# Entry
Amino acid sequence: MNKMVGGNQSMVTEFVLLGLCHSWKIQVLLSVIFLMLYLFIIPGNIVIVTLIITDTHLHSPMYFLLANLSFVDMWLSSITTPKMITDLLRVNKTISFGGCMSQVFFSQFIAALEMVLLVVMAYDRYVAICKPLHYSTIMSLQRCIGLVVTAWTAGLVHAMSQVVFIVKLPFCGPREIDSFFCDRPLIMKLACINSYNLEIFMNVNCGFVALTSFVLLLISYTHILITVCKSPKTGANKALSTCTAHITVVVLFFGPCIFLYVWPLSLTWIDKFLAVFYSVFTPLLNPVIYTLRNNEMKSSMQRYRKYYVDSIRSVLCLET
# Structure
């Protein structure tokens, strides 16, 4: 054991994923449901990104940040969902050591990235509502790009600080993971050494990122709500509509993350439910929330629908 720990070697080349349940009928049903959801998540987020890029009416900081969020959501869903769907139809659910470490890295990367990105979006709304006269100056294109780069950098640094320690752990015995993907807390429990201190360090690391982001969000939306309460009713309704969508996404994203990585529960079925919600339903709900509650996005979709309908009619008329 000492030799193995000293050389940072591992005897385990693959892990076994126990999945969500043991009933074959339920697994088949879940695979169909998750496949349908995944086939809605990817096109839905692609539509949002495409509309924002091509529609000049949406060329503003808020929609620039929303396009980044949708792009990140496609990543978030694609880290675990495709393999989960195929594993539900398999008897032997295995994943290589490298594949497992990749899932750990990208799940931590996307989680931290999206937290910081949500803070940036809250800051954008704070400036737009609380300092409208200086909005174009403060939220310039250079500032927006700088904030997005900061979010990506924060996610990368956080993920590297987690994975660099996990990769060096010795795995020589148990290799069964009671989940549908390689979750960081579950992987660390399989190590052949006492990783209690390392788990505390990583929980503190995750807690720092989550708590800092949450406090900044709380400060931003507190200032926004105070300003909205003092505004005329017409402007207040529009601001509240936008902020409600943002707050809903924040709650849906931070809720599962806190109980998975910052304050983990001891109930396996709850952890699995939260992991599925985080991986599948959060990326699904984001495009729905932002498109159904945002009048400008709905207007953009109507313009493009009209444009394509008219184009098809023109083609048919030419052919006839």
User: Anything to note?
Assistant: The radius of gyration is 22 Å. The chain has one domain: 11-319. Residues 11-319 form a domain with the Rhopdopsin 7-helix transmembrane proteins fold (CATH 1.20.1070.10).
